Amino acid sequence: MLALFTLCLCAAAAVGGVWFARAGEDAPAATGFQGAVRPHGAQLPDFTLTNQDGEPMTAASLRGRPVVVTFVYSTCKDTCPAQVQSIRGALDDLGRDVPVIGVSVDPGNDTPARARAFLLEQSMTGRMEFLLGTRAQLAPVWEAFGIAPQSKGRDHSAYTVLVDGDGRQRIGFPASQLTSSALAADLVRLK
After folding, report:
1. How many helices (H) and strands (E) does the chain have?
2. Please, which of 8, 74, 95, 162 could form a disulfide with 118 given CB 3.0 to 4.6 Å?
3. 3 vs 178, higher pLDDT
4. How do 100-104 and 129-131 pair as beta strands?
5. Pick from 164, 172, 160: which is nearest to 191 by CA?
6. Is 38 left (phi over 0), alpha (psi -120 to 50) or beta?
7. What total number of domains does the chain contain?
C-alpha cells in the first residue's frame, strides 16, 4: 500500500512538474501570440478536396501565405457560425482577406448546396472555401490537426488554426477562446 501511494505521489509530482514547466510556454506574454502555440512540427497535410463549388483544392495551392483553417459543418446552428463570424470579424479588422478554409467535419451531411448556403448565411461567400470530401479523404486532415469529427451523440472538435506560409501549424484557438481581435493580432504577427 505504501509503495502504491509513493508511486502515485511520484507520478503526480512528475505530471505537476511538466505542467509547471510548460505553463508559461504558450502564454501570450511568452510568445507574443494571443492563441496557443501548436506542437512543433505539426504541418498542413497534403490533401486534395473539393470546395463548395466542386472545384478541387490542394494543400500545395495554399502554401506561400498564411491560411486560417477551421473545422465546421453546414447544418451547425451555434458553434460553427460563431467561429466563422469571429474569422469574418478578424478579416474585417485586418482590412484585407487571407485564405480561409473550413474543413467539413460531417461529410455525410455536408453537400455542396448546404456548404454554399452556410457561406451565404455567414456572409463569407468569396472569403472562405468550404472543403468537402468523403470520410476517408477528410480523415488525414482531421488527424493532422487533432480534430474529432461530428458523430452521433458527440460534437466535433471546434478549433481554428493559423498555418504559416511554409505549411506549419503555428497558432490555435479553441472555439471558446476565439475572438476577432485575437485572431487579427495573430494574423498580423504571422505574416
Report:
1. 6, 8
2. 74
3. 178
4. parallel
5. 164
6. beta
7. 2
Kindly state whether residues 50 and 16 are assigned to the same domain. no
pTM score > 0.90 for this model?
no
Beta bridge partners of 72: 104
Q: What are 183's three cell numbers?
A: 485572431
Residue 12: count of CB within 10 angstroms of its CB: 10
Same domain, 60 and 123: yes
Map grid coordinates 458523430 to a residue: 151
Residues 126 and 174 in one domain: yes
Q: Which helix (H) or strand (E) holds 138?
A: helix 135-145
pLDDT in tens, 23-43: 334 444 456 899 999 999 999
The grid coordinates of residue 174 equal 479553441
Residue-by-residue DSSP string for 36-53: EEPPTT-BPPP-EEE-TT
The residues that bridge with 43 in the sheet, in sequence order, are: 168
> Residue 119 is inside which H or E element, if any?
helix 112-121
Q: Which helix (H) or strand (E) holds 130?
A: strand 129-131
Residue 165 has phi, psi (to 5 degrees) of -65, -20
Domain limits at 117? 34-190
CA dihedral 47, 52, 54, 58 (to 10 degrees): -20
